[in-house]
């Protein structure tokens, strides 16, 4: 489905639809267009969790910024459904660790809310935040650099 089709109605793709990345990719973009129609609807949980994983590893992990971000350090665990990812923030990049190592600072929420928060489409109030909130703000700033 093109992002403009069914802006205030249409069906969301599902994990069972076999569209994979094609189904996930536009979710963040559609949320922006649909915001005029009210709050975003939850997506298929398995598809959304897969989208969080792909987004953290593909878009945000590694050296995605030509400019180091001074003072930009920390470690935050992101949790949705039964999955979690630990993100190490360094001035030159971020690293996503999948070994289940939790950190003292965590961001958690429902899969759809968390995915849209990662894309900068929902405010901080939709996710739970514990630990060093300055590290959460640093992560949020770095994510916004990567997704805007």
Instruction: Provide the domain count.
Output: 1
The stretches of 5 or more residues where confidence is low (pLDDT under 50) are 1-7, 14-27, 29-35
The shape is globular
* Helix percentage range: 25-40%
Overall strand count: 5
Strand content: 15-25%
Q: Can you name the CATH architecture?
A: 2-Layer Sandwich
At the first level of CATH, the class is Alpha Beta
In the CATH hierarchy, what is the superfamily? SCP2 sterol-binding domain
Predict the CATH topology: Nonspecific Lipid-transfer Protein, Chain A
Major sheet size, sense and barrel closure: 5 strands, mixed
User: How would you spell out the order of helices and strands?
Assistant: HHHEEEEHEH
Give the strand order of the largest sheet, numbering strands 1, 2, ... along the chain. Answer: 3-2-1-4-5
Distance between the termini: 23 Å
Total of helices: 5
* Average residue pLDDT: 75
Helix-strand makeup class? alpha+beta
Radius of gyration: 15 Å
Q: What distinguishing features does this structure have?
A:
5 helices, disordered N terminus, five-stranded mixed beta sheet, alpha+beta, Nonspecific Lipid-transfer Protein, Chain A
What does this structure look like?
With 148 residues, this protein is of the alpha+beta class. The chain has one domain (42-147): Nonspecific Lipid-transfer Protein, Chain A (2-Layer Sandwich). It contains 5 helices and 5 strands; from the N terminus they run αααββββαβα. Strand 2 and strand 3 (94-97) form a beta hairpin. The two termini are 23 Å apart.
